Amino acid sequence: MNLYSQPGHIDQIKQTNAGVVYRLIDLYGPISRIELSKRAQLAPASITKIVREMLDAHLVQETEFQDPGSRGRPAIGLILDTLAWHFLAIRIQPGQITLTLRDLSTRAIQEDRLPLLATPEKPLLQTLQDIVNDFFIRHQSKLERLTAIAITLPGLINAASGVVHRMPGYDVEEMPLGETLAQRTGLPVFVQHDISAWTLAEALFGASGGAQNVIQIVIDETVGAGVISGGQLLHKNGRTLVEIGHTQIDPYGQQCYCGNNGCLETVASTGSLLNLTAQRLPSQPESLLHDAPLTIASLCSAAQQGDRLARDVIAGVGHHIGRMLAMMVNIFNPQQILIGSPLNQASDVLFPAVSSTIRQQALPAYSREIQLTPTAFNDPGTFGGAALIKDALYSGSLLVKLLQG
Ligand SMILES: [Zn+2]
């Protein structure tokens, strides 16, 4: 997180190996030390040493199990010791904040959802500190040893420094969120964009498990994408994000909050989709959309029943998104494209519009095999934050902090 405290070469190897071993125990436990040594491609002596440290720190424990390869007496296997370690995953959305206390298996212990109000009297950073502090006081009796805090939010952020440059719906400029909370709580704090963290959550717990190259597109109140490239989240610890929502689609289009005109977000977000539908509705007296208040749910339901206007506007969004994805496909050659959107309720209209546009506009060799899949989470909640913690354990960076106590 801190750019000036990069570990030395030996420490880096130790950190990476510890992360690999922890991940293998998580995935395959109960697992014997011998099997661990084979899978990690590390010498048995190294495995013994790493496991000893983890046992002493209560991060793993031994258990008897029946090794499928051998009959006879049960073997000693290793599993994670997750119950006595907690972390706090926080999700900030316009108008609300969700705080979930989880143990290291990601199981939720306590979840609170609160309004997050912008007031001129109190800076947002102070409000956030107070909310976190109050949460810990309120649930003190449930707390086990705390490991870290992970925060996901929309806006322009620097994940490396934990600084939030801008955030929609709040008057925020250069808010040092990560550093302030770290100082206040003494815990490591991870800050990441909501969509990037959701992309990681799908890779670790959801629809893209094991895939090395994935593009995830989110079409909601905002439009954005996350990319897994070579098994890693693109820009994971970087200063920047994948900002496809602010790519110009229509030079004569309406102004966007970023200052440009006709951004993808102004033509493909759910809000702009509802506006467009409302504009066209008077010229479509037959439309089923006259029968109910206009919402994304009623729009999708009308599309499912064959309503022409509803199908046209959803397909229109699909074509815009497909055009953007065609360029991304040519860059990343993904195995899988995930779509996270309330419009997935009308996926039989949306998905063909997206995929036909990709096939027309991307390199055939890249686009031929592509599968569009809905995200596993309709709403990731604080699983984005949980994914950041798991990723930091697997990479070893958070793990070594826990080992050092
Ligand atoms: Zn924009």
TrEMBL record:
Keywords, ordered alphabetically: Carbohydrate metabolism, DNA-binding, Transcription, Transcription regulation
Alphabetized Gene3D superfamilies for the sequence: 3.30.420.40, Winged helix-like DNA-binding domain superfamily/Winged helix DNA-binding domain
InterPro entries associated with the record: ATPase_NBD, ROK, WH-like_DNA-bd_sf, WH_DNA-bd_sf
Molecular function via GO: DNA binding
Gene Ontology biological-process entries: DNA-templated transcription; regulation of DNA-templated transcription
CDD domains: ASKHA_ATPase_ROK_Mlc (cd24074)
Pfam families xrefs: ROK
Family matches, as SUPFAM superfamilies: Actin-like ATPase domain (SSF53067), Winged helix' DNA-binding domain (SSF46785)
PANTHER family, per the entry: BIFUNCTIONAL UDP-N-ACETYLGLUCOSAMINE 2-EPIMERASE_N-ACETYLMANNOSAMINE KINASE, ROK (REPRESSOR, ORF, KINASE) FAMILY
Entry similarity comment: Belongs to the ROK (NagC/XylR) family.
Protein name (record): Transcriptional regulator of PTS protein
Species this protein is from: Candidatus Pantoea floridensis
